[in-house]
């Protein structure tokens, strides 16, 4: 089926038709991966469409840009407005938002001071890891590709070039028939999924890998940590060896796109009893409860469109 695109996109300060949002083939980002971006979801809530943790996502966009000396020509408020406009103009409520800032046309050297172009797209998106993923869980494998070492490419920046690593991990997993790939860090310890953070459950306690394990410290990861602690579930950030994936009572992946996805088997070994466990179900309830009103948003995470 041909890909369907929404009608409108925001680019460099103006809303324009999707097909007109083009960029030059000699743009720096296309050759060198010099873009920074975000993935954000909006949800239909009882109080209308709301963007989940929009401000936190945009703050991370500016942090990613800072690491690469990219000065965005728009303020955070201007980009927040652009995000809202793109959702409204396309008549969307539940959607995935993609702000991207990139080095455009203006020099071919690696350190060229190019203009920074910015765009925001939005489109409807269901569960990222497949229609049954949230209910039934997915299978995963440990990738033969490691994450980049912390002194090579900073995993804490959500930069385009990082996703060459993610593509290798995700494509290998799918080629081998798994739902997603999990990577080890250069230390040999667990890092994260191709585009998701990891939580393991042992005896009702959540364990997640630390920033030093070459992960993107996800906003969903932070959300789940907060919701769990509020609910009396202990959360520990720690180094985790690979075999803990096979020994955990429950394993889940989380991210803006993946939301809260149970993993039912890893490397062909069943996780727990092979279905979403008690803690995973509780986290799903609390997480999705934010959007249907069952979980009180005491943090002001839902930002109205
Ligand atoms: N790790 C990687 C590599 C990712 O691409 C993502 C998705 N942005 C995440 C983790 C999860 O981050 P978040 O919860 O902020 O979407």
Automatic annotation (TrEMBL):
Task: Give the source's domain of life in one word.
Answer: Bacteria
User: Which Pfam families does UniProt cross-reference here?
Assistant: Aminotran_4
- Give the protein's recorded name: Branched-chain-amino-acid aminotransferase
Q: Which InterPro entries match?
A: Aminotrans_IV (IPR001544), Aminotrans_IV_CS (IPR018300), Aminotransferase-like (IPR036038), B_amino_transI (IPR005785), BCAT-like_C (IPR043132), BCAT-like_N (IPR043131), BCAT_family (IPR033939), Class-IV_PLP-Dep_Aminotrnsfr (IPR050571)
Provide any one GO MF term from the record: branched-chain-amino-acid transaminase activity
Q: Does the keyword Amino-acid biosynthesis apply?
A: yes
Q: EC number(s) for this protein?
A: 2.6.1.42
Role according to the record: Acts on leucine, isoleucine and valine.
The biological pathway it contributes to is: Amino-acid biosynthesis; L-leucine biosynthesis; L-leucine from 3-methyl-2-oxobutanoate: step 4/4; Amino-acid biosynthesis; L-isoleucine biosynthesis; L-isoleucine from 2-oxobutanoate: step 4/4; Amino-acid biosynthesis; L-valine biosynthesis; L-valine from pyruvate: step 4/4
> Per its Swiss-Prot or TrEMBL entry, what cofactor is needed?
pyridoxal 5'-phosphate
Reaction catalysed by this enzyme: L-leucine + 2-oxoglutarate = 4-methyl-2-oxopentanoate + L-glutamate; L-isoleucine + 2-oxoglutarate = (S)-3-methyl-2-oxopentanoate + L-glutamate; L-valine + 2-oxoglutarate = 3-methyl-2-oxobutanoate + L-glutamate
Q: Report the source organism.
A: Fulvimonas yonginensis
State the encoding gene: ilvE
Name the keywords, alphabetized. Answer: Amino-acid biosynthesis, Aminotransferase, Branched-chain amino acid biosynthesis, Pyridoxal phosphate, Transferase
Question: What protein family does this chain belong to?
Answer: Belongs to the class-IV pyridoxal-phosphate-dependent aminotransferase family.
